[in-house]
Design a protein that fits this description.
This protein is mainly alpha-helical. Helices cover 51% and strands 9% of the residues. It contains 16 helices and nine strands. Helix 3 packs antiparallel against helix 4, helix 8 packs across helix 14 and helix 15 crosses helix 16.
């Protein structure tokens, strides 16, 4: 049901971000010091602000089945995202004359649809389904919190059962999801518009020149080992393989060393492979460069030296742990000249290059070229290499798997074209 959205919002909602350093000096912990607050007509809005504090501190997490749970505190960036999503819903509720004490799940779906249709957008443009879904999820969480804290009557979230792929005997497990979420439009092969190896090397050189050696190594870890940016930033010194261990592996001719990643998406540690050459490069930086950086940090701040593996080498910021936000900037212009390029594209790059190298080895072992293989053989071998990649990536959805499959089939065709062109040139020059 479409509702009238007022051209002028009768209530002015704003989001306020406190000075985190000042809040800490006044005795507030990290979870509260960075948490935003909401104001209504320049007056502090106690109830939504309290929700954001509980959300940020991990004292409120809504299971989609409707159960209230306590989770882990969320990062400052996630706190900001929650604040902006809630702010948007509050503005919408005011513009659409919705009473939060009585709105239903169908009203939330109306909010969701109005974003996708462009009826609720600052520029009048249709918003992506992923944006609408995330905002609707936050709206449901807030309304369920209001009910749980006695501010309103029960709020029922309609759910549906889905099958999700998991590694196991039957390959699938059941689960619940919020009903009538907007379907994500397929990005096709545009999602995997990846740079080539030469462009990657130029980008890493640019990161080193503009952002420093430490951020270059941290960025390279994404394309070398497919870590998420927060996983790489959370690594500690004692997690990285020692020089003795790396040299021993190299002396035995081993191509990789193991690295246990503890801070992961889903909080399940996993063991990944690091190429020995890159592992040694980082280990040498840890032994030769990092001690001086953390020593400057300790003398400048009076605090203990951080345990994070990657710390800044920028003048005036020496020794500060590299944050996911600062690492993200290494993938943006002017550091990277090719676009699109984000940290998750770096994970795509590692996956696709690993699969392509695996296919080349398979083809060479069977004494034939990739341009001569059948599509059935390619799909079978791609499936094998993708399954191996899952262990390194930590998670791989069916949709992403299909994108890798389609990208790889395209690359195989391009390999054939390149080989034929090379043969043609060779014959011309004979």
């Amino acid at each position: 049901m479409k509702r009238t959205i007022l051209s002028e919002i009768p209530v002015e909602w704003t989001l306020f971000f406190p000075n985190a350093s000042e809040m800490k000096r006044k005795g507030f912990d990290d979870n509260i010091s960075s948490c935003p607050a909401i104001f209504r007509d320049d007056c502090y809005a106690r109830i939504p602000s309290r929700y954001l504090r509980e959300r940020g501190a991990g004292n409120w997490y809504l299971d989609i089945s409707g159960l209230e749970n306590e989770g882990d505190p969320i990062a400052p960036t996630s706190q900001r995202n929650c604040g902006y999503s809630l702010l948007n819903f509050l503005k919408y509720s005011s513009a659409a004359n919705l009473d939060l004490m009585s709105v239903t799940y169908d009203d939330v779906l109306g909010y969701q649809h109005d974003q996708v249709d462009g009826r609720w957008s600052s520029k009048g443009k249709k918003l992506s389904p992923s944006t609408a879904n995330a905002r609707a999820d936050e709206a449901c969480s807030y309304l369920a919190w209001l009910a749980a804290r006695g501010h309103r009557g029960p709020f029922e979230i309609k759910t549906r059962h889905v099958r999700t792929r998991r590694r196991g005997r039957n390959g699938y497990t059941g689960g619940l999801t919020r009903a009538r979420r907007e379907k994500i439009r397929s990005g096709g092969l545009e999602v995997l518009n990846l740079p080539n190896e030469a462009e990657i090397q130029d980008w890493l050189a640019s990161v080193r020149r503009l952002r420093g050696q430490a951020k270059m190594l941290n960025s390279r870890l994404i394309v070398e080992a497919a870590l998420r940016k927060h996983e790489g930033c959370a690594l500690t010194v004692d997690q990285w393989p020692s020089l003795d261990h790396i040299n021993h592996s190299m002396s035995r001719g081993l191509p990789h060393v193991n690295l246990t990643v503890v801070v992961t998406k889903g909080s399940r540690p996993r063991v990944i492979l690091i190429e020995v050459g890159f592992a040694k490069l980082v280990a040498l930086w840890v032994a030769q460069q990092r001690p001086g950086l953390v020593d400057i940090y300790a003398r400048r701040t009076g605090n203990e030296a951080p345990i994070n593996l990657f710390v800044s080498d920028r003048a005036g910021y020496e020794g500060i742990p590299i944050s996911p936000a600062s690492l993200y900037l290494c993938f943006r212009p002017p550091v990277a000249t090719f676009q699109p390029w984000y940290p998750h594209h770096g994970r795509h790059y590692w996956t696709c290059m690993s699969i392509l190298k695996g296919l080349r080895r398979d083809a060479a072992a069977a004494n034939f070229s990739l341009k001569n293989v059948t599509s059935g053989w390619v799909k079978g071998r791609i499936g094998y290499w993708i399954e191996l990649a899952r262990r390194q990536l930590g998670h791989l959805s069916d949709e992403t798997t299909e994108l890798y499959m389609r990208w790889m089939m395209t690359q195989i065709e391009l390999v054939g074209i390149a080989d034929e062109y090379s043969d043609y040139l060779g014959a011309e020059n004979a």
